[in-house]
Amino acid sequence: MPVIELSHISKRFGKFVAVNDLSFSVEQGEFFGFIGPNGAGKSTTMNMMLNFIKRSGGEISLLGKSVPQHDLDVKKRIGYVPSDVRFYPQLRVQDLIRYTLDFHHMEGDQAEIDRYFELFQIDRKKKFGDLSLGNKKKVALVCALIHHPELIIMDEPTNGLDPLMHARLFRVLKEKQEQGATIFLSSHNLKEVEDYCSKVAFIRSGQLVGVEDLSQVNKKTKIVTLKGSKLPLDEMKAIGATCTKKEEHEARFLYEGGLPQLFSTLSNLSTDLEDVTVANRDLEEQFMSMYERQEGERL
């Protein structure tokens, strides 16, 4: 049973359609990425998932329960990190953690609480309003993790974190995943999505562009860049390569075939070919390719 299941959800603000007929699912134990340009509808989608805003249509299920019918029960089993962290500014950090545990009807393990304060270097006696942006984000992370959630939903969780805290956060998240938690990560940092997520959903203008299994796609897909006065476009197409970028003396292809076939084809060409580069496909290349292809289809 999927931990997250979105079925044809939509959200309209007057005449503006922020999310349009969006459907995908996330399985238990996955580290799932959710990416797209600014204004794509990512935060709106997460706000509908958590019932912070009402959807205009479609169905949402979290942890096997319909939202919002089982809203309170579901939220007690979820950890959430918003992109914009806001708590009562006069409350001390240690009180915020205690209130979080009270909401989840948990006493909390003091040793574990101390571990989080030490791990993220948080001054527990400081008032929340006196903290820097990065320290506010760290408090939100502890609040999201301290109650051992089954599902962790994060919207730009590393914004404001230094490299050390970034590394520590993902170490904790991998531990949570190994313990059975499902992690849903929205981030503009494509490198961290590529490093930690096994699957990723691409969204643009409120619509799903695609869902990719990174463990499979990155292994089989190569980026082939050719430079020369005469580019073998027809020959590359004949072996199944897809041209994603074409300039006067340079072309870039996505290729999923065998390397022996590629090199055999290129070796039979004339000396007009000056340079050949073959590299693994990274998430940024995949991201740009999907959006460029969609833009071309619109035109």
UniProtKB/TrEMBL annotation:
One of its GO terms (molecular function) is ATP hydrolysis activity. Keywords: ATP-binding, Nucleotide-binding, Transport. Residues 4-230 form the ABC transporter domain. It holds the Pfam family ABC_tran. Belongs to the ABC transporter superfamily. PANTHER family: ABC TRANSPORTER ATP-BINDING PROTEIN, ABC TRANSPORTER ATP-BINDING PROTEIN NATA. This is ABC-2 type transport system ATP-binding protein. It comes from Sporolactobacillus nakayamae.
